Amino acid sequence: MNRFLRAAAVSVIGAIGAIAVSQAQTVTCQNAQYDPDVLARFPNIAKACSDIISKNGEDYALVSARLDRVDPSGRVQLRVKQPDGSYSKQLSIRPKPDLKVLVDGKPARVQDLAANQEINAYVKVRAPEMALPPADAGQTFVFVPIEEPQQQLAALPSTAGFLLGDVRRIRESIEHVLGNAIAYTDRKGRILVEAGGNEEAAVIRISDNGSGIAAKDLPRVFNRFDRIVEEGVRGEAALGLGLPLTRQFIEAHGGTVELESKKGKGTKVTLTIPREIK
């Protein structure tokens, strides 16, 4: 082979090699090698993904998500938007509450996010971890494990009946108690909501097998201005005004609030509300 043909062959081989390398380095939503745990949580991620971002040797799938709620403990519950416009099952992450993220082009703290907000999120291709978009484009992504929601059960028989009262206050009372149960029960835990009662009063009971409250703190949980710090699923958080407000609202209806809790075993809160306010 003369020098000209040899040089041409080398050039062709070099070009083919460059193309092969280029193709190998181009990761798309469809050809990304998703970790099995990622696929278990997002079976349709290849279609839900709108782009792949590559940084520092890692590939991240960009998805759209809708916020369900932000718990007092900082847990963010969200659902990933599917190709058909529906949303995935609920998932949870725990970014730092003071982390500033980008929502609708504006910076906002995680703890200030509201339900039903649409937000972008990044999912690691090779691990079941997620990050919210930082407000500062130059800021490093902070990835945290994706948690599956607790087992949430409801026993609401038709015989539970009705009651007359302030619907908003009763709903808020239940939400305060349920919010604490969610915040202090880990992803493998269980939360049970039961409703029942008799002809005179309705009974709503919310129980969990979460971290529970220390015996020494039980007398203080209903003190409105007493700050009790409890060990949550991920670090410490303070029990807020939820329980004092619940007692205030329920007692305004002539009812009672009872709380039973044991450290490391869980908590049970029982709301007893007269069917009619006298």
Keywords:
single chain; 278 residues; alpha+beta; Heat Shock Protein 90; five-stranded mixed sheet; 16 strands; 33% strand; elongated
Model description:
By secondary structure, the protein is α+β, with helices and mostly antiparallel strands. The protein folds into 2 domains: 29-145, no CATH class; 151-274, 2-Layer Sandwich (Heat Shock Protein 90). The chain has 5 helices and 16 strands. Strands 1, 2, 3, 4, 7, 8 and 9 form a 7-stranded antiparallel β-sheet that branches. A 5-stranded mixed β-sheet has the order 10-11-12-16-15. Helix 4 (167-183) packs antiparallel against helix 5 (242-252). The longest helix has 23 residues, at 3-25. The N and C termini lie far apart (106 Å). 29% of the residues are buried.
In short:
With 278 residues, the chain is an alpha+beta fold. 22% of the residues lie in helices and 33% in strands.
The CATH class of the largest domain is: Alpha Beta
CATH superfamily of the largest domain: Histidine kinase-like ATPase, C-terminal domain
Number of domains: 2
Bulk shape: elongated
Query: How many separate helices?
Result: 5
The secondary-structure element order is HHHEEEEEEEEEEHEEEEHEE
As a whole number of angstroms, the C-alpha radius of gyration is 26 Å
**Would you tell me which CATH topology of the largest domain applies?**
Heat Shock Protein 90
For the sheet with most strands, the description reads: 7 strands, antiparallel
The appropriate CATH architecture of the largest domain is 2-Layer Sandwich
Low-confidence region ranges: 18-23, 233-238
Specify the helix fraction band: 10-25%
Percentage of residues in strands:
25-35%
Q: pLDDT average, as an integer?
A: 81
Q: Let me know the number of strands.
A: 16
Structural class: alpha+beta
Instruction: Give the termini distance in whole angstroms.
Output: 106 Å
